[in-house]
Amino acid sequence: MDKLLVRGGKPLHGTVRISGSKNAALPVMAATLLTPGVHRLRNVPRLRDTQTFARVLELLGAKVSFDSNLLTVDTREVNSVEAPYELVKTMRASIYVLGPLLARFGRAKVSLPGGCAWGPRPVNLHLTGLQAMGAVLEIEHGYIVGRDARLKGATIGFDVVSVGATAQLMMAAVLAEGTTVLENVALEPDVTVLGEVLVGCGARIEGLGSRRLTIHGVTSLRPIDTAIIPDRIEAATFAAVAAMTGGTIRLENVMPDHFEAALRKLEESGCALQRAADSVTVSGPARPRPLNVVTQPFPGFPTDMQAQMIAVCAVADGTSVVEDTIYLDRFTHVPELARMGAQIELKGNVAVVKGVDRLAGAQVMATDLRASACLVMAALAARGETLVDRIYHLDRGYESLEQKLAALGADIQRIH
Ligand code: UD1
Q1: H/E stretch holding 15
Q2: What pTM value is reported for the model?
């Protein structure tokens, strides 16, 4: 298993080009199943998760090819509706094929994803929403099985804001018969952009960017031809690296509005920011000021930046409070940071972080994607050597992370 060896303590400086967004790319990849044709997705990050999703599409009969960051998906000969456990268990986003398969073929057999490192992560809203649209779904031997579904418009109100359920039902509704109204939808850019991509293919969706979507079903769509938006979490992570190491990093190819909540927190911590249309320059303070952070659905502070922010707070000049309201158990990075000298007390879903002057290198282990990013950040700021184990999580979600960090002056090395 690969590890990363980091010799920390240096401020990082320079320019980093932010890759396409993983969380925006995956639902668009699923949406290629809605209509037979040759779809072109540009700026797709080359990651384990996008490769796994490509494999899911291939198993369904699609022809998929990656040429640098251009992904071409030919869905003209899709001839299977089964997404197997072996793939779904490695990547929960595979569940996104359910709505498109039901919408196009009236059938689907998709493995239930099961739990993840930070808790149960249910998909009940996906299922009840599709059922409200007329799908008959059974759970058989760990699979969600839908047969003879003819999706019809329905009014569906979500009791919690869910990125996954909003994307899933939006994809199902664009080809359903009649009008679907989705209430209390997610506003994350990944979801809004999926809607815009579908509209570009001929879907009729009203209310994008608001909490209520009205979707009039159409009988056919044109193939997708789009560029995936920049990854707001990768951008915010590099901004946090500048904050943590006291360096100056220019983020290129970003949409600053998409990670404004994180930028505002970094400003509060003492960073100086220069925002432009598609770039942000972040200069970290000598030592970050402590913060209060509460994760919220977009446009609030993202749960996907909670771990990285705890890393910044771990070296802040005072005591910070970080609360995750989206995933209450998403704190596996906390005991690992403690091994590097961080002083963090966990009370349920609230981390009280007493900043220390300096972290110290140690052997640590990553347990999920953002927790891994947090540990790499801590390693970059720590005195001495840190060995981060199980970094395959990072390969799921950060394109060329160690090359990008090395280009900013980090002493970082992958050990096979
Ligand atoms: C969440 C984040 C997303 C992030 C992703 C991976 C939010 C709103 N979403 O998305 O930004 O990229 O984690 O870290 O911050 N839920 C249900 N039933 C369902 C679906 C969800 O109860 O069927 C609950 C979840 O348990 C969670 C909340 O709704 O508490 C948000 O879920 P959702 O946005 O769907 O989660 P992800 O798609 O995993």
Answers
A1: strand 13-17
A2: 0.96
**Radius of gyration, alpha carbons of the chain:** 21
How far is Cα 318 from Cα 313, in angstroms, rounded to an integer?
8
Angular region, 397: left φ>0, alpha ψ -120 to 50, beta rest: alpha
Q: Which atom of ligand 1 is nearest to the CA of 233?
A: 12
Please report where in the chains the tokens 């400086």 appear, as a residue.
Answer: 13
Which pLDDT score, from 0 to 100, does residue 348 have? 96
Which ranges of 201-326 would DSSP assign to H, the alpha helix? 232-245, 260-268, 306-314
Q: Is 234 in the pocket of ligand 1 (CB under 6 A)?
A: no
- Chunk the chain into consecutive blocks of 10 residues (it has 416) and report each block's average pLDDT, rounded to whole numbers: 94 98 98 98 96 97 97 97 92 94 97 73 93 96 92 96 97 98 97 98 98 98 98 98 97 98 98 97 98 97 98 98 95 97 97 98 93 97 96 92 97 95
- Strand stretches in 169-300, DSSP E: 179-183, 204-206, 212-216, 225-227, 248-252, 272-275, 279-283, 292-294
List strands edge to edge, sheet with 343-347.
292-294, 319-323, 350-354, 343-347
Ligand 1 centroid–CA 113 distance in Å is: 13
Tell me the C-alpha distance between 278 and 210, whole Å.
24
Which atom from ligand 1 is nearest to the alpha carbon of 93?
38
What's residue 117's pLDDT?
66
Ligand 1 close to Cβ of residue 328 (< 6 A): no
Cα 386 to Cα 337: distance, rounded to the nearest angstrom:
11
Please state, in angstroms and rounded to a whole number, the distance separating the CA atoms of residues 398 and 204. 33
| H or E element at residue 4 | strand 3-7
- Residues constituting the chain: 416
Q: How does DSSP classify residue 252?
A: E
Q: What confidence tens digit (pLDDT) does each residue in 51-65 have?
A: 999 999 999 999 999
